[in-house]
Design brief:
heterodimer; A: 171 residues; alpha+beta; PH-domain like; 2 domains; 4-stranded antiparallel β-sheet; 3-stranded antiparallel β-sheet; 4 helices; 24% strand; elongated; B: 591 residues; 7-stranded antiparallel β-sheet; 15 helices; 21 strands; 20% strand
Chain lengths: 171, 591
């Protein structure tokens, strides 16, 4: 993984499971398909002659085409997006990074943690991964680590809870 | 009208027939007993329902009078019908009153050494328990009608951002104040006097800021509402002239209603505003019809923002808002007023409030640093601003956008028209995130955001040099960890040696010479000990050298008998002192 400009140096990022990419690809395929079908409705109506008054044929074609281009672009980005997700456990805090174009690096001190969520959806369960979310007293803290292998998620949850207890600082 | 915290008014309070009413901490052994709120609270809470019923019934009857003349029918049903109608009305009123009464009967509360518990509900029972040392703020609210009856509502806030954990509506004002004192004393970790466990005295307080009503009105007039009104008026008049339709003038009416409502809310929440310091934290009171007394214990302010709308610049006024975990981010005028520590104040008053919130500014030049943050631009006093190469991203604000780090807090400065300074104590940082978009990456700048609890203050550094931002990000995480290790206990008076500075009892000559008495001016008379000890007189846990003799003097002078806990010592007013002019080098650099 290429080092990004705002990454802290001297840190070993843990990357998420490659299976997460498959989950994301499946989600992306389903989502794209739904959008494409929705965007194709005017075209279908126009071609079947139900809706003749549609302004122009090129517009009816342009709509699904635009959706298709957007979807392909998002699909191309997906591997890089997934690869850009990383987390690092330091002595006092947890770092989470994400994003390709709009990058974000977040640091959450263990003592600030209020609770940890581990969520598993049906697709994620099929691939044996989970999503971990860390909550602090600030709702704006968006410490989300998706695509963790199930055992890693459990380990991290226990680890975070133990460290949070050790460094408990209230508010 | 008595202010929220004044002595219980001379207004008649109906005798309570229940015996279990109020009386928090009144009878030592009964302290842990279950109690109910005042018996007439259902009336105060439910009056609006009764008024609504009477209004609808009364309106029908009233309209009946007129229709009787026009249609020749009797205004009221006669004989049995009249009795029946009256009976139904009575039954409805009794039913509503009964429902409130039953709800009142089933609502009980209890304050133990560690918890406050409330049981409520008739069909769906609820039992709630909140830890006292988790208190984030305590409010005593007196809505207008409750004031008439001499009652008050007590709100106990924990860090759940919004809904009050415990609301006791209503108690007698005396009882509410006693209960507040009890809760605060226990939350502070003060052990009760074993001989008189029931005698929990309200911590003494010293007023530091009082805002004259004239200034509140002036502030409302100079606020954005007036600008909006003038602009809208100009638009309406122009449209009226251009299209020659005088009827458009009627659109003034909703506009006026809105603006007058805004003015009223500003006046109602800013009127008689007073801020005081006490060992239990900052205490503010305000209100015209509804009065409110808020207590925010030490270390509960998560972030503080100082804003100056453009028109206030002529008068040098600022508004101070805070994020307190229990208050949440409510958009209502009440919610906004609660999160306002100073609705409109001069720069000296702002610095005074800052000194209360942040007794140790972490710099030897607090006045200069904070003033630079309020009005300054470029890199004075350790501020780091947006690099010149990124100025096209913020052509107006780039010289002002910046941050500075002191030993105890991070200062974030922004805004040219709406000047803003945000102060986040290091130990209150929840998490920090660094953001960079594609354009920022080209220019080599990043944004940094500090997440705090919900509230009006949002702490972010925009367009800082990437390397600098990363250093700040990294350094801030370390400083926050370090500050948390050093930070005081949740129970702010737990350690016995944590003596709040200052003397006991009324203002003594000693204190006056110590420049503690006069509230506002950032007096230099204490500068001698400041320059010597590099320690601004604070109300923090560390007694400064100058404070020790003061405290002993006070005890020698004979404090009131049987005041065991040091909490009852009158607090000194922490105050920032300008650095002596000969020290030209600021002690705090960036990072």
């Amino acid at each position: 993984m290429r080092r990004e400009p705002i990454d802290p140096s001297g840190l070993e990022w843990s990357r998420v499971s490659p299976k997460y990419l498959r989950v994301r690809v499946i989600g992306w395929l389903i989502g794209s398909l739904v959008w494409l079908v929705l965007a194709s409705i005017p075209l279908a109506l126009r071609l079947t002659g139900v809706w003749d008054s549609f302004p122009a044929l090129w517009l009816a074609w342009a709509l699904p085409a635009a959706v298709l281009v957007m979807s392909v672009w998002r699909g191309v980005l997906l591997p890089r997006q997934v690869a850009s997700i990383g987390y690092a456990e330091r002595d006092d805090d947890l770092l989470v990074r994400q994003g390709v174009f709009f990058q974000r690096t977040l640091v959450v001190p263990y003592g600030r943690m209020q609770y940890v969520d581990v969520a598993v959806g049906p697709l994620e369960r099929a691939y044996g991964i989970c999503t971990l979310k860390l909550h602090t007293a600030a709702p704006a803290t968006n410490a989300l680590i998706p695509g963790l292998p199930a055992e890693e998620g459990t380990r991290l949850r226990e680890q975070l809870s133990a460290r949070g207890e050790a460094r408990l600082a209230g508010l | 009208m008595t202010p929220a915290d004044g002595p219980s008014g001379a207004l008649p309070v109906p005798p309570d027939g229940t015996g279990g009413t109020g009386g928090a901490g009144a009878k030592g052994a009964d302290d842990d007993a279950w109690q109910r709120v005042h018996v007439i609270s259902p009336l105060v809470r439910g009056w609006i329902v009764l008024v609504a019923i009477l209004y609808f019934v009364g309106r029908d009857w009233f309209e009946g009078l007129f229709s009787a003349e026009t249609r020749g029918r009797g205004p009221l049903p006669e004989g049995v019908g009249l009795l029946l109608a009256g009976g139904v009305l009575l039954a409805v009123v009794l039913l509503v009153a009964g429902a409130f009464l039953v709800s009142w009967y089933f609502t009980r509360y209890q304050v133990t050494a560690e918890h406050v518990r409330v049981h409520s509900g008739v069909v769906f029972r609820q039992q709630r328990q909140a830890r006292l040392d988790r208190v984030q703020a305590i409010d005593i609210v007196q809505p207008f009608l409750a004031r008439i009856f001499g009652l008050a509502e007590l709100k106990f806030e924990v860090a759940d951002a919004g809904e009050s954990a415990v609301r006791l509506a209503f108690l007698k004002l005396d009882d509410a104040q006693k209960l507040r004192a009890t809760i605060l004393a226990r939350a502070a970790g003060v052990s009760a006097d074993p001989d008189h466990p029931e005698e929990v005295v309200e911590a003494p307080e010293r007023e530091v800021v009082a805002i004259p009503p004239g200034r509140v009105i002036g502030a409302a007039v100079l606020s954005g509402m007036t600008v909006a009104l003038v602009v809208a008026a100009a638009v309406i008049v122009t449209l009226g002239i251009v299209f020659d339709t005088p009827f458009i003038a009627t659109s003034f009416i909703p506009l006026l209603i809105g603006v007058i409502g805004g003015y009223w809310s500003a006046l109602n929440t800013g009127y008689n505003f007073r801020a005081a310091t006490s060992p239990d934290g900052i205490r503010i009171r305000y209100g015209l019809l509804d009065t409110r007394a808020q207590t925010v214990p030490p270390g509960r302010v998560q972030a503080l923002g100082i804003v100056q709308p453009p028109l206030w610049r002529f008068k040098g006024w600022y508004r101070v808002t805070v994020n307190v975990a229990g208050y949440g981010a409510s958009a209502s005028s009440e919610g906004q007023a609660r999160a306002t520590l100073l609705p409109v104040g001069t720069r000296d008053e702002v610095l005074q409030i800052l000194a209360l919130v942040l007794p140790d500014p972490g710099t030897r030049r607090p006045v200069e640093v904070f003033t630079e943050g309020l009005v300054g631009k470029d890199d004075g006093e350790g501020f780091v601003t947006t690099p010149r190469r990124a100025r096209w991203l913020a052509p107006l604000a780039w010289r002002r956008n910046g941050f500075a780090v002191t030993g105890t807090a991070l200062l974030l400065r922004s805004g040219v028209l709406w000047r803003q300074l945000v102060v986040v104590p290091h130990e209150r940082t929840q998490s920090i995130s660094l953001h960079q978009g594609p354009v920022s990456r080209r220019v080599g700048v990043s944004d940094l955001q500090l997440q705090t609890t919900p509230g009006p203050v949002s702490a972010r550094v925009v367009l800082a040099d990437s390397a600098t931002a990363w250093q700040l990000f990294h350094g801030q995480a370390e400083r926050a960890a370090e500050a948390r290790r050093r930070s005081g206990p949740e129970q702010w008076m737990k350690p016995v040696q944590a003596v709040p500075t200052g003397a006991a009892g009324p203002v003594t000559a000693n204190e006056v010479t110590d420049s503690v008495g006069a509230p506002i001016p950032l007096d230099t008379s204490a500068a001698s000990d400041t320059s010597a000890a590099s320690d601004v007189p604070t109300a923090s846990d560390v007694p400064t050298a100058s404070d020790v003799p003061t405290a002993s003097d006070a005890s020698a002078a004979g404090p009131p008998p049987a005041d065991g806990p040091v909490r009852e010592v009158m607090p000194a007013v922490p105050r920032y002192v300008p650095a002596p002019s000969e020290s030209e080098v600021s002690a705090d650099g960036p990072r």
